[in-house]
Amino acid sequence: MNRRKALKSIGVTGLAGVLAGCTSVQEQDDTTTSDDGGADTTAGDDSGQTETTATGPAGTAKAWYSLQDTELEARKAALKQFNDNSKHTMEGSDVSDLKKKTTSAIPAGQGPELFDWAHDWVGDYHQRGFITDRSEQLNVELDVFTDAAAEAVQFDGNVVGLPYAAETVTLVYNTEIVDEPPETVADMKSVMEEHHDPGNNAYGLSYPFDPYFVSAWAQAFGGYYFDPEKDPMLGLTDSKTIEGVQFALDNLKPYMPNDPSYETQAAPFAEGNAAFAINGPWYLATLNEKGVDFGVTTLPTPEGGEARPYTGIQMWYFAKAMEDDGANAAAAQSFAEWYATNEDMLEQAAKDQGSIPVLESLAGSDALPDDVKAFSETVRKGVPMPTDPKMGKVWQPLTDAMTKVFNGDAGVEAAMQQAEETVRENWE
User: Fold this and answer.
1) What are phi and psi of 397, to 5 degrees?
2) Helix 412-427 and helix 395-407: axis angle, to 10°?
3) Which of 428, 338, 323, 385 is nearest to 117 (CA)?
4) Domain spans of the chain, in order of start
5) What are phi and psi for residue 210, nearest 5 degrees?
6) How far apart are alpha carbons 82 and 334 in whole angstroms?
7) pTM of the full structure
8) Tens-digit pLDDT profile for residues 151-186
9) Class of domain 208-251+394-428
10) Bridge-partner residues for 202, per DSSP?
């Protein structure tokens, strides 16, 4: 799912002073690129080296990521801060289609040392030899992270990256429209009913309708998309999964714009024209830039169930290029360790961007904004996305099914049956 590619079109220009309170970050001339692997940072001096960067030769490593505009300035600032205080140099590039780029460049020996994405690629990329184990070289113990984050960066006993944030979707409400956040879906519906008036560009809910976003309801009554621990592993046609998707259609779709895509659904709330949105922490920076008065709360409770959305762990993957274990690999590892454990930077990212820390010392801390605490609580109730390589074949057929049922081109049971058949064909 190329979710972040879609998000880039919603974002606005980056945040100034995003790392205020951390080490001072000076202005820089950058040469940001989108797809060609070029650098967007410049090297600093050797002052302020940490112990992990002070031994051995200096290295130069590449980091790839795919961020929305509101996140880019913070990432550039972080790279520069590291470079200014290490003998190593990290060169960062924002890549528009990270999956396409990594799957073509890494096998050709042209990939980066690090790349940033949610943990759901771990199994597939490990199986295909795109990432490497650094468990013997790490200077960071995984127990400094939450249990879910530590588990997410491991596969078959290998540590293939370091986590720095969690993500999921939860309920956001316009405080100028909604007096108090709803505790149940029934409460939410009564507010949406009052404010939904599409003829006047007013909506009850902004909510992208795709498998990731709908997972909260598909899994609310005991259903599941895919679980390697269950028999059968594939649960698209499970009666509880179908019940959950139908619940979303019956109770939420009537108050949404008539297009399931991210851009169409995210826009009304960001423009102040919707009572509620269901979206992720990446959305908050856009809302702040747009000047929307909003609050964040946990997802409302459906009668007879509990909303359980998919959760992801954002991580720095150790790419195949780090197998040589030379100076460049040391540079990349040093950056990943610094980034994943820098409390000041992670706390500032939580305040400025809604980022959800997974460093144990910060997770759930009173130092975090209330918005981030609400996301953290939803993460706690959610379901980690599977890392099994077979999950990669589930997304697209399921996306097609969600689009069909939203547009009224098929019933839920028929669409999910077709999706399951396609997945099994893809597995074969």
Assistant:
1) -60, -35
2) 160
3) 385
4) 3-166+312-375, 169-207+261-307, 208-251+394-428
5) -140, 175
6) 9
7) 0.81
8) 999 999 999 999 999 999 999 999 999 999 999 999
9) alpha beta
10) 197
